[in-house]
Design a protein that fits this description.
10% of the residues lie in helices and 46% in strands. It is flat and about 165 Å long. Residues 190-299 form the Nucleoporin POM152 first Ig-like domain.
């Protein structure tokens, strides 16, 4: 075999590489094309873009609009008047609205609502028809249609047990006729080997096979089998003796259970050899040969599959290159699969045939199992080797496995794989081949190429900058890599080309971070990379040029820097010429007499530069250049003789301000001070000018010995900008140096001042006290911020506050007289005007309130004020007097203790009063004790002042009495024959007794009630006796009009308040609508009612009392079960339970008859020709019984039976037995007892239908 056999969905044959392209072409070639032109999409796009409102939402909005229009239409329908003009107008209005809606919706092009023209026309004419029916009020029998439709989906009736029952469940009760008897006439005895064509195989785990021999209507004593050898086709006869047959039959009887011994049995014969088995002869106990079915059964070796193991280590992209070895009877099917890393298992099924295998011959041999062929070579076991070559294109662990193997006879061996493939586990472990696929290593140079050479110092070893791609899937797996590179030395002036020998180097990299070490100049080219398992790939760039640049050198020359005035040297100019790789760094040592030497250095970015050494201090200097560095070489010493230079420096005179920035401000009349730095040899003479207002004043300072001099100007007595300029400086040598140093000073024109401001034309203020800060106004001049120092007269401790605004204020907490002592602004101190330096602060008196005693306000024992008690809901108030500055504000709380419930604190009450007298409204909404506590008061000056010393106002609110009927709304009914005064109407009263009660009694035919006054009621429960004179036939109403208690509180009832009714009525009647006494289950029992609906019917059923209601003049119930139904009494709407019409109407409900054949089950009896079988019937009901049964053909599966004959019979007892000898299916189709009858399709006749009772 050249390749692996595969299904279409299996793995592709190796080593093809066009698998993805072909698969993609196959997938896309089978799918329908869904592309549309852009123009068609634009034409069919909805008017409202789907990006703005999606299609489901648009359909929902249309549906909501349609529901709203329908609701509007129904509203117009119910408000329609009988005028034809109005009806026509509404019909025309809805004709226009419906047409606009139905013809406008498709124009919106909403998906699923783009109706065709015919559909829109159909809907339009349907709406026109509906509008015509509604607007012109055309009568349609909706109620009849609704009732019929309701009965179709909900067909239930009230039964005697007062629950709804489905009549169909009673009329079509399949449990009344049960059972079926099937009689089969068996043929003569027979035997067959393995009729169900089970497959059998033998291997190491299955050492034997049990061949089933089916026997029917016979007891064999001898059985002969023929075995045809699979390899030699030699026949062998196997004889099963009578003793072995008995053992096999005993085992079969035990497995079959308690069945007649003549029925069929399965005898199991154990074989341990492979071959083709055939039933040759079967002899029964009468020594007659039993008829046998000619068929063969093959017992073959069980199929087997394995994997030939190969090397487990592979490289990415390699072929799997292993083979499956399968053994069994061809054609074979093997299911194998793979699992990559931690992914799911996948499997594929292969059909395998040997190369010399003839498929048509094998198919013919399988058919010959029934044709008694003698050649068994087709069933021989074959060994087939199947190569598997797949590309391992993913790094990691690949696991190939065999899931199952099946031969031509469906013998299947499952291997243990777990549950990933849904295959049942067996004892045998699955053959597995595991590969560890390694990544291919790659290498390249990083940061070095022929264009970007690697520069290193001569003799210095460096790492070759390679980048190695990691090849291991797990970091814990450390692989060694072998790197091969080629070295080509660099040609020098003294070398020839033939001397440049190319060397090949090979090194081992133990880690991924390992690098080869190189030092020789030349070209290094990577030629190969590999690890322990795989050869790798060299990527670009792969060549690196290593260069050794020349060592850096420097040539130094110097010249002095002379001064133009003094003539002496002030510095040294150094010229540098360099060789090497920039940038350079040169270090030198500076030595000065009397000082420690110091090492200095500087960086040079080019090959030539010039430095100037100009010390600021005089003295002898020595410069020694010691070392040089460039980009490649570091700290190379300088050994030339011309590397040491000396100079004697005398610096020139110079002067400059320490702070060259202008000084912002200066106070008038004060001098300005500056620090001046001097250089050169002292003593110095400094000249400077002061320029102001266009005038220049020269100044000179001589004999300055310190290098840092503090320059103080003369007093600056004029305001404005002053410029101080250094003009020249002269040192010891007498060399005068001209200067241009300048600073500027702004001099204030005046000094700051401070004074108190005025409030309402005076420096005093009258304010409310209470610890709040008070602001005293100020008037300030100068530049912010200011610091004001003040004192409270009578105190010695001054206070300083920072003020940021010229019209600011100081804040104080105490009243008194305040005086300003000092003022200073941002720069300068100021002056105080004594006339405006003082301010007076005084406080206003606090507000108060008073409550005076009066005839309605008395002082209580606990110091509180007690207000006269009032009734609930009465209006009352308390008067309060205020002292202070109006308007006033007060806050108080109400503490309430209701008569019923717990205490509670009401919300804070706030009131504003414009005058000195006010009143507060008393709370009388609920009965109880109220306390009014004042929290705070305030006036125009004070926001809040505590009132802890004021008394509390108390008041008692009495509850109003109430009267109500104990059974409000109850109707007291009396029969016409009974007295109306034997009953009382209970009334419940609340309040403080004694009570005065006023009632009203009104007859339904009169508009004026009769007033009844009842004084001096001492109890809270009163039984009112209706005067007999006030009652007559009909309806009376009794209502409560008014009640008053001992506290003088009164409550009047509302015009439509609680009331009770008293009815005097006649008695209702009931009579049966059918004359018969006996009914069957499923019948309807009906009665006619007379009186005022609704009616209440009282009856008993099965000894239980029940009550039923009827809103019409007919009372009907479905008889759902047997029993005695007796109507006891009836009452209607006008009567009461105590005023019932007594009756004794009896109806008897009988059970439906039932019958069972074969205990209500389907039983099957086999008899021989001429034999008999018994039909056993069991009845239920009231004898005698008349039943009808049929005999039909024994139909096979999927076929209908045909009725052969129908018979009827009678039984006086509850059981009956009949004997039959004809083959067929017997079943009962109808049953009838003394009162009722039932058929297999439902109840046909019932006792309630007037049938004649059976009698024999």
């Amino acid at each position: 075999m050249n390749g692996t056999p595969r299904l279409k969905s299996a793995y592709p044959p190796s080593p093809k590489t066009d698998r993805k392209k072909a698969t993609n072409r196959a997938i896309y070639s089978n799918g329908p094309s869904i592309a549309k032109s852009s123009s068609t999409e634009a034409e069919n796009a909805p008017i409202i873009p789907l990006s703005l409102v999606d299609a489901p939402s648009q359909r929902a909005y249309v549906f909501g609009l349609y529901v709203a229009l329908t609701a509007w239409k129904l509203y117009d329908y119910y408000g329609l008047i009988s005028d034809e003009t109005e009806s026509l107008w509404l019909w025309l209005k809805w004709l226009l609205i419906d047409s606009a809606f139905l013809f406008g919706i498709p124009e919106l092009r909403i998906p699923w609502l783009q109706w065709s023209s015919s559909a829109v026309a159909f809907l339009f004419f349907g709406h026109v028809l509906g509008n015509t029916i509604l607007m012109f009020r055309i009568p349609i029998p909706f109620e009849a249609w609704l009732l019929a439709f309701t009965r179709m989906i909900y067909d239930r009736e009230l039964a005697i047990s007062e629950r709804r029952v489905k009549p169909g469940s009673l009329l079509h009760n399949s449990s009344l006729i049960l059972g079926k008897q099937i009689v089969n006439i068996l043929p003569e005895g027979s035997a067959v080997l393995n009729p169900e064509k089970h497959s059998f195989c033998i291997d190491n785990s299955r050492l034997s096979a049990e061949l089933p021999i089916y026997i029917n209507q016979t007891t064999p004593k001898l059985i002969e089998l023929i075995r045809i050898d699979l390899d030699t086709n030699v026949n062998e006869t196997l004889t099963i003796s009578g003793k072995e047959v008995k053992k096999m039959k005993a085992r079969a009887d035990k497995e079959a259970g308690k069945q007649p011994t003549t029925e069929s049995r399965v005898l199991k014969y154990q074989v341990k050899q492979t071959g083709l088995y055939r039933l040759s002869k079967v002899v029964d106990e009468s020594n007659l040969e039993v008829q046998r079915v000619l068929a063969d059964t093959a017992v073959v070796p069980c199929p087997f599959a394995s994997i030939r193991s190969v090397d487990v280590n592979k490289c990415k992209g390699d072929l799997s290159n292993f083979s499956l070895e399968v053994q069994g009877t061809p054609p074979l099917k093997v299911m194998y699969g793979k699992k990559v890393n931690h992914g799911k298992r996948s499997a594929v099924s292969l059909t395998i045939n040997p190369e010399e295998f003839d498929h048509e011959e094998s198919l013919h041999a399988l058919v010959s199992l029934r044709n008694q062929g003698s050649d068994a070579s087709w069933a021989r076991s074959h060994h087939v080797k199947v190569p598997i070559n797949e590309s391992l294109d993913l790094g990691g662990v690949w696991e190939y496995f065999v899931a199952e193997v099946k031969d031509a006879l469906n013998n299947t061996v499952h291997y243990d794989l777990g549950d990933d493939l849904g295959i049942k586990s067996r004892r045998q472990a699955a053959p597995i081949q595991t590969f560890r696929v390694h990544e291919i290593p790659t290498v390249k140079l990083n940061g070095c190429s022929q264009q970007q050479p690697l520069k290193r110092a001569k003799g210095q070893t460096t790492d070759l900058p390679i980048w190695l791609n990691p090849t291991n899937q797990k970091r814990s797996e450390k692989l060694k890599h072998i790197l091969t590179y080629m070295f080509t030395p660099q040609l020098t002036e003294d070398m020839k080309e033939e001397d440049a020998i190319v060397n090949i180097e090979t090194i081992t990299l133990n880690t991924e971070d390992a690098r080869p070490h190189v030092s020789k100049p030349g070209t290094y080219s990577l030629t190969g990379i590999s690890n322990e398992y795989c050869a790798g790939e060299v990527l670009e760039p792969s060549s690196c040029l290593l260069l050794n640049p020349p060592e850096p050198e420097v040539s130094i020359s110097t010249e002095p820097i002379p001064h133009q005035c003094a003539g002496n040297s002030v510095g040294l100019r150094v010229n540098l010429d360099l060789v090497g790789t920039p940038p350079f760094h040169i270090s030198w040592i500076e030595r000065r007499e009397g000082f420690k030497p110091r090492e200095l250095g500087d960086t040079v970015d080019s090959l030539r530069t010039q430095w100037e050494f100009k010390p600021t201090e005089p003295g002898n200097y020595r410069y020694e250049f010691i070392k040089i560095s460039d980009k490649v070489y570091h700290d190379l010493p300088l050994r030339d003789q011309d590397r040491v230079f000396e100079q004697s420096v005398r610096p020139i005179a110079w002067a400059h301000f320490a702070d060259r920035h202008s000084k912002d401000l200066a106070c008038i009349g004060q001098s300005a001070s500056f620090n001046v730095y001097l250089s050169g040899e002292g003593p110095w003479t400094l000249e400077y000018d002061i320029v102001h207002g266009g005038k220049r004043k020269k100044n000179k300072v001589a004999d300055i010995s310190d290098s840092v001099y503090r320059l103080d100007t003369p007093a600056l007595v004029k305001g404005g900008e002053h410029s101080i300029t250094l003009t020249s400086v002269t040192d010891e040598s007498g060399c005068k140096i001209f200067l241009e140093q300048e600073v500027r000073v702004n001099v204030r024109h005046e000094s700051p001042t401070a004074a108190f401001g005025m409030v309402d034309g005076q420096r005093s203020m009258l304010v409310a006290g209470g610890g709040k800060k008070q602001l005293l106004p100020l008037k300030l001049t100068g530049e912010s911020p200011w610091h004001v120092t003040y004192v409270r007269v009578g105190e010695d401790k001054p206070v300083t506050q920072k003020i940021n605004q010229a019209n600011g204020a100081i804040d104080v907490l105490q009243e008194g007289t305040y005086e300003i002592k000092e003022i200073r602004d941002k720069v300068c101190p100021g002056s105080i005007d004594l006339r405006t330096s003082k301010f007076d602060l005084n406080y206003l008196p606090r507000p108060s309130l008073h409550i005076f005693e009066s005839s309605t306000m008395k002082k209580g024992p606990n110091g509180s004020l007690v207000k006269n008690s009032v009734c609930e809901g009465d209006q009352d108030s308390a008067e309060i007097t205020f002292n202070g500055q109006p308007p006033f504000h007060m806050e108080y709380k109400v503490h309430a203790k209701p008569e019923h419930g717990s205490k509670f604190l009401g919300p804070l009450q706030k009131e504003d009063v414009a005058s000195h007298v006010a009143s507060i409204r008393m709370d009388t909404s609920q009965p109880g004790t109220y306390q009014y506590s004042f929290i705070t008061i305030g006036d125009h000056a004070y926001d809040s002042v505590g009132t802890h010393n004021f008394p509390v106002i108390e008041q008692q609110v009495h509850t109003r009495p109430t009267a109500k009927f104990s059974d409000t709304g109850r109707t007291y009914n009396y029969c016409k024959e009974q007295s109306a005064t034997t009953d009382v109407i209970p009334i419940s009263l609340t309040g403080t007794p004694p009570f005065i009660l006023e009632l009203g009694i009104r007859h339904h035919a009169s508009n004026m009630p009769e007033i009844v006054n009842i004084p001096n009621i001492q109890s809270r429960n009163y039984d009112f006796v209706i005067p007999q004179r006030a009652l007559s036939l009909g309806t009376h109403t009794v209502s409560i009009r008014k009640i008053r208690d001992a506290n003088g509180c009164e409550r009047a009832s509302e015009p439509r308040g609680p009331l009770v009714r008293v009815n005097v009525v006649d008695m209702p009647t009931i009579s049966p609508m059918e004359p018969q006494l006996d009914y069957c289950v499923g019948d309807r029992i009906s009665f006619a009612l007379a009186g005022t609906p609704p009616f209440s019917v009282y009856y008993t059923f099965e000894g239980a009392e029940r009550k039923a209601s009827s809103s019409g003049t007919t009372f009907r119930r479905l008889a759902e079960k047997p029993g005695e139904f007796v109507v006891k009494a009836i009452s209607d709407k006008a009567s009461t339970d105590s005023c019932r019409a007594r009756h004794e109407l009896t109806k008897i409900v009988h059970p439906l008859p039932s019958v069972q054949i074969s205990k209500g089950k389907v039983s099957e009896v086999d008899i021989h020709e001429g034999g008999e079988a018994e039909l056993y019937f069991e009845f239920g009901g009231t004898p005698p019984f008349e039943f009808t049964y049929t005999r039909s053909t024994n139909a096979g599966k999927g076929k209908r039976s045909v009725i052969l004959e129908t018979k009827s019979d009678i039984s006086e007892q509850y059981t009956k037995t009949l004997r039959v000898s004809d083959e067929g299916t017997y079943e009962v189709v109808s049953i009838r007892d003394r009162y009722c009858s039932v058929t297999a399709h439902g109840i046909q006749n019932r006792g309630g239908g007037g049938q004649n009772l059976l009698g024999f």
